[in-house]
Predict the structure.
Amino acid sequence: MRGFGAFLGKELREITHTWRIWGLPGFVLFLALTGPVLALLTPELLKSMSGTAGMSGVVIQVPDPIWRDAYLQWTKNLTQMITWVLIVMLGAMVSGERKSGTAILVLTKPISRPAFVLAKFVSNAGLVVVSIVLGALGTWVVTFAAFGEAPVRILAEITGVWLGFAIMIVAVMSLMSALVDSQLGAAFLGVGVLIALTIASMWGPALEYSPAGLLNAPNTLLMGQQTSTLWPLVTGALAAVVCVFGAVWAFSRKEL
């Protein structure tokens, strides 16, 4: 693993000194801060619709919003919008470096190909973790301000479970980006994996034992329903390890 520490340091510095420090964290914070506000205002917006010309005489019954509605916005953003953004963004994780010629410049120095791929994975996983933790903190602050109540434990649980899924997605995209030569191609493959997991989540055994169980776990936990995340997290971690090793293998056989 020659040169891993040095290249990882370079990647982390690049994150903090370029637009990347504002890209994903900024997007996540925007969703985190506006989600509770949207949850608070949605009932009033729906009620106001009953007074429009096209809905005369229609009464919309909407329960008063609570903190759980704000957290539900957070889980929706995680499992839908942020997941898709990660897949598109990470499509260039390895392929972008090859296409721009950066990879060949880096690898002429005492840095091995496995160290290159692993540093890419670790730095991007770190960016995801920091972004989501900041987003969860922002969600908690605004939820507490809006509703006067914001349980910490359930927010930590749903965020932690989704982070397990997100780390696996980073690993999957490192493999896809190492296999193909374009960001778009890697993103298409990543979307294919996400669709496959979504379909698998409809099958009981896959839902209970495979990473597919992590897709709906945040919402299930939030609703207080019984669910076990142990095996999905374990198999998700194993899948992440396999994908990272696969990315190293694929990149080692690519011509720069």
Observations:
- The first helix runs from residue 4 to 17.
- The mean pLDDT is 89.
- The radius of gyration is 21 Å.
- Residues 4-39+66-252 form one domain.
